[in-house]
Amino acid sequence: MNPTQIVLSPQKLIPQSRIDFVKNKPNDRKQELKKGYKVLPSVYVMAKKTGYEELYTYFYYATSSLVHFRPDILAKMAWGTFGEDGRLKDYTVSIKNFSNYYLEFNLVYGTYLFKEFIGNHFYEVAMSIENKLDWIKKIDALLDRDWPELVTFEHMNIKPPSSIIRILKRATYNFKEE
What we know:
This protein is mainly alpha-helical. The protein is built from 9 helices and 2 strands; from the N terminus they run ααααααββααα.
């Protein structure tokens, strides 16, 4: 915490009766309803009801390993070189080893989610913008790139293919589509 940051006591903002109500909330859904707590459906249930179960499952898998400790994720933060004998010679363990990956991940998937949101809620959000389809096609152009893999070459401690190989792969794929 920032030592100069002003933090207000919750008692000054929230009545004690409300604090006690929240602190004493049971963990069981049936008990919560019985005691008068408002119980919302889980994000998974909402995704399923709106037709986004597949997208939710994908993002849950892609991001849950980033927020929950797992030894394999810690091991993937170690990046190093191997000696002639095949053993790890030197290495560093740092989240910086994934900074480019997370930057790409956020750029691509953030753009994708933004596009989905605008595509589904365009009129509620931006009634004044004309040519909705042209605008969304511009966003599509941002997505016309290699999407970050969930398991990367870096995760496997393997040097990724060069940019030229990636460009050639994309060019041959696009050629087949036409």
